[in-house]
Design a protein that fits this description.
Helix content: 25-40%
Distance between the termini: 55 Å
């Protein structure tokens, strides 16, 4: 989970720093954490699209964090604040040992709607407000709702 992620006040987690800026939750798996977050009235989104990273090397103590760092680097484009490691596989490819890490982006927030206005930076909120105002049209100094414009198109064009 990304350090500094807002969490319900009632939720206490046992975790330790894993990679700079990220905390590993120790006492719960993804389902258990989801249940505890929902019990607090918050939402823990499971975002589509599994991410896989393969790292070559002999020492799993080094290859797993390296693979997770690679996955987190690809998450920078996403707005997720959590990552669930779903599988770690050690195997050999052409005789060379490698570790594959599979993960899903997750996102915890208070709202049940993914990435609501309060989750966006101020500049994004302004952009959204501007978009919302574009659904209102001015006709002869009267502000008409979009529904009225659609049901009475001649009002807007006259």
């Amino acid at each position: 989970m990304k350090e500094g992620t807002p969490l319900p006040e009632t939720l206490r987690l046992d975790g330790e720093s894993f990679i700079t800026g990220w905390t590993q939750v120790n006492d719960l798996d993804g389902h258990g954490l989801d249940r505890r977050i929902r019990e607090s009235g918050w939402t823990f989104f499971y975002l589509a699209g599994e991410i896989k990273k393969t790292v070559f090397g002999f020492d799993a103590q080094k290859t797993v964090p390296k693979a997770v760092k690679g996955i987190l680097a690809s998450l920078k484009q996403e707005k997720s604040n959590s990552l669930e490691i779903t599988q770690i596989v050690s195997k050999h490819f052409l005789g060379v040992p490698c570790t594959q890490v599979y993960a899903h982006p997750r996102h915890v927030q208070k709202s049940m709607f993914l990435f609501r206005d309060e989750d966006l930076p101020d500049r994004e909120q302004t952009k959204i407000l501007g978009d919302a105002n574009s659904s209102v049209m001015r006709a002869e100094d009267q502000i008409l709702s979009l529904e009225k414009v659609i049901t009475q198109p001649d009002v807007a064009t006259s």
